[in-house]
Amino acid sequence: MAAQKGKDLLLKVADNGGASFSTVAGMRSRRLAFNTETVDATDSASTDRWRELLAGAGVKRASISGSGIFKDAASDARVRELFFDSTIADWSITVPEFGTVEGPFQIVALEYAGEHNGEITFEMSLESAGALSFAALA
Predict the structure, then answer these.
(1) What's the rounded Cα separation, in Å, for the pair 79 and 96?
(2) Residue 56: CA atoms inside 13 Å, Cβ hemisphere, count?
(3) Is residue 81 included in any domain, yes or no?
């Protein structure tokens, strides 16, 4: 994958009806991380007592985090609504020349900050709340 512009990594949230996605405006940074837990299957017969892992047995999860400034009243309101209602919604994140990940996420942290001589910023973190789909970009 060649070098890409960070602004092309897009975070979108499903509209209230869930039929379409809207870009979360004002995002200056975004991060997508995948993790899986390991299941240790080591026993007394393991070769030279090397740890053995059980393939496909761990719990998979994804997290999204990002920060930015307020730019669009509609997407700002949607994020705020999802957090305060503890709603799980469908989200989409597009990584250029990689693909798109979509599925249910819950906002687990929403923070606001501001300097006396600057703009108000926000940070948010999301955790996956179900199975995710991946579509590679052509």
Answers:
(1) 23
(2) 0
(3) yes
CA 108 to chain centre: 11
Q: Does residue 37 contact residue 58 with C-beta atoms inside 8 Å?
A: yes
**From the first residue on, what is the mean pLDDT of each consecutive set of 10 residues in the chain (138 residues)?**
69 82 86 92 91 90 92 85 94 88 95 90 94 89
Query: Which secondary-structure segment (H or E) carries 104?
Result: strand 99-114
114 within a domain of the structure (yes/no): yes
Asked, for residue 1, whether it belongs to a domain, the answer is no
pTM: 0.84
| Residue in 71, 63, 62 with CA at minimum distance from that of residue 24 | 71
Q: Are 79 and 12 in contact (CB under 8 A)?
A: no
The CATH number given to whatever domain includes residue 31 is 2.30.110
What is the total count of domains within the chain? Answer: 1
Structural domain of 43: 6-136
Phi/psi of residue 119, each to 5°? -85, 160
